[in-house]
Amino acid sequence: MLFVATLDGELLHCTDSLRQALGLAPDQETSLLALVHSEERDAVEAALARLRSGGDPVQLDVRVQDGRGAYTPMSYSVRRSPEGDAIHGSLRRAGGGTTDGVSMARMKAKLLDCIADQMDIGVWAVDPQGTFIYHDGRGIEQAGVKRGALLGMDVFQVYAGTEIAENLKQALTGKQMHAYNSAHDMHWESWFSPVLDADGAIQMVAGLTLNITELRRAEDDVRSKLMQIQRQQEVIRNLSTPIIEVWNGVLTLPLVGVVDSMRTADVLDALLTRIVDKQARYAILDLTGVDIVDSSVASNIIQLVTAIRLLGAEGVVAGIKPNVAMTMVQLGLDLSQIPTQRNLRAALAFCIGMMNGEQQKQARAQKP
């Protein structure tokens, strides 16, 4: 990690690895004194004074503040430039806490880099003011944004008026957040994790953002197909229980197959609505297509006829097959209170005859 500084220690240029290690934005200005712990600034100032006076290169171990605000032991190696108007230096992590010669901090950094490179995620962090101090991950590139492009930028300006800004405001109060949001024409699942110092103050908010665009599209596709299946099932139900107006004031409902409780509810709702809409006087339940009957079927038929009568109409059952009639008798089912006819034609004739009889009766009642 290399850098160039003025004779007073103001940072002029540095490598990307140094900026990343210290969490410095591309255009962020700082100094060697500002980066080290306050207790060690005198030593750094003394080293700078020796270099300004033409002294030999200096190496010293200090604690340097990284992007999380934590202080990490590092070694400065600084010397005066050949022209004498600047300081050239390098920064490396101090020894200690090693595994196979690699510092534990470096291992963690490599692990984070590996995860960010291999997975569709964005890894980022902001300081307590909402300024990006870390911004990396393959998921960021997939969103069309260059890694590190947001370093030094204000998250509340970049994502103004979005759920991301609102979630981050909550996280900056110390609340752990987990949210789903959309940005850059993609879908993301994000975690906002407040990082606190020893005194419990917000040091930064670390974030992990997972690209779930493909998963969301797959969910939307499945949801669309389920809705299509539901619509198809509704069409099938309507086709299986067609309600036909065969005469003025007479509706017929052909029942085919099994008349179970669920189907009875659908039929009942549709039939009663049509009776009210058409002001029907009679509703014929045609059982010609019903081959199997049990006590539940008969109960459902009685329920249909009872509901029809409550609307001021009359239910007529037609087309009972011989085997169905025998089954009803064996089951002891009583349909004696319900008008029954041999087939649909006979039921229609019955309904027309009943309506004609009612009209003649009314006509006689109106004569003086």
TrEMBL record:
Keywords: Phosphoprotein. Residues 240-351 form the STAS domain. SUPFAM superfamilies: PYP-like sensor domain (PAS domain) (SSF55785), SpoIIaa-like (SSF52091). Transmembrane segments: none annotated. The keyword Phosphoprotein applies. Pfam families: PAS_4, STAS. PANTHER family: RSBT ANTAGONIST PROTEIN RSBS-RELATED, RSBT CO-ANTAGONIST PROTEIN RSBRC. This is STAS domain-containing protein.
